[in-house]
């Protein structure tokens, strides 16, 4: 697949799909819209776990995101499924545990090649987005900082065509 095949599909994944991945989903969607790329890129989010299927993002994630102008309230948690590897060009893990779970779930070697870290697109030296679920409210701001940085990098990668170097050929 390459950038000329039509719509680019990106899936962001964390554990429960109520904190990190919906935050990154909302941030990336908004930044793509602002860059005029929303019609060219589809974003979704999911969790490797089945703990919160059908639920809204954590209220603290929604509140922190709203404070920066992002609306997460329309998102609902879902679990990653094997078909996602066929639907998405890039599958971006929030941390190494979810990365390993995604690689194990991937139906083929080509599908495993689609799995990357969300922060591969950030200038930050961090590789993992820390899970804020059991942390203080300030942890949600850190997730937003990292999501914004990764989203900026992703938007640039889409604009320049460099995103294909992260996706399976």
Automatic annotation (TrEMBL):
Q: Where is the signal peptide?
A: none
What InterPro entries does the record tag this protein with? Answer: LMW_PTPase, Ptyr_pPase, Ptyr_pPase_sf, Tyr_phospatase_low_mol_wt
The enzyme's main class, written as a single word, is hydrolase
Per the record, the domain of life is Bacteria
Q: Where is the active site?
A: 14, 20, 131
**Which CDD domains does its entry note?**
LMWPTP
Q: Where is the Phosphotyrosine protein phosphatase I domain?
A: 8-157
The Gene Ontology terms for molecular function here are: protein tyrosine phosphatase activity
Q: Which organism is it from?
A: Thiohalorhabdus denitrificans
Q: Which SUPFAM superfamilies match?
A: Phosphotyrosine protein phosphatases I
Pfam families reported for this sequence: LMWPc
Its protein name is: protein-tyrosine-phosphatase
> What family does the entry list?
Belongs to the low molecular weight phosphotyrosine protein phosphatase family.
Q: What is its EC number?
A: 3.1.3.48
For this UniProt record, give its keywords in alphabetical order, as a comma-separated list. Answer: Hydrolase, Protein phosphatase
